[in-house]
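Today's session is about reading a structure prediction critically. Students often jump straight to the picture, but the first step is always the sequence itself: look for stretches that repeat, for charged clusters, for runs of hydrophobic residues. Only then move on to the predicted structure, which in these notes is written as discrete structure tokens rather than atom positions. Here is the chain we will use throughout the hour.
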Amino acid sequence: MVTAIPSTRKNAARAAFVDLHDPVRSMLTECFKQFGIDVVPLSGDAAARIGREKFEACVMKLSNGAEPVMQAARTSASNSRMIIYGVGGSAQDAMRYSKYGVNAVFHEPLERSAALKLVRATQSLVLHEFRRYVRIPVITEVSVVTGDSRRFNASSRELSAGGMSITTGEDLSSGQSVEISFALLTLPRIWVRGTVSWRHGHNLGIHFDPQDERRARIKAWVDAYLES
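Below is the predicted structure for this chain, in token form.
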């Protein structure tokens, strides 16, 4: 008699799909399953299930019904740091929910290659398999003041302990000094000095000033986010 070998497979990460309909649901299910992430379709009172069950990620339409689900997630003890994906038209759609820290957006109309690329870029956070230098995708409003006192708003793309990438139509060049401010979930609005380190089209990177002591609050937030 052959004794069965106990399975050593970890519990799979789960992504809640809230009120998604085909063909969007089918396409995204295929994308997530490629990276070993189980999909759990939710309908009806999705906010209640998000509040009591553990999920590593949540995908939902950026529509009027999204806010109660996001609220339930961010106030849940087990899901407060889950990766939230929006399905919508642009980053501006996500900005309406910036207080909930939407992490990434699948732009409509969905294209399989673009959707797969986004899941690939974020799956390490869903699976809690972190690189040495982790960049957390998050979309929120960022206020920018340049060295010549120009002021404008931008939207964030990724955040790390050492810097942030943002999207803006303003003309900034590498090496330019800025001061930025933003708020994230449990991180109250913070100001920090930085330097433009790169630019590609409307996207640019800000390297935080190592001498700015306020940067420590950002590092503490990033560390807490990853440990939860």
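Discussion point for the tutorial: The chain has six helices and twelve strands.
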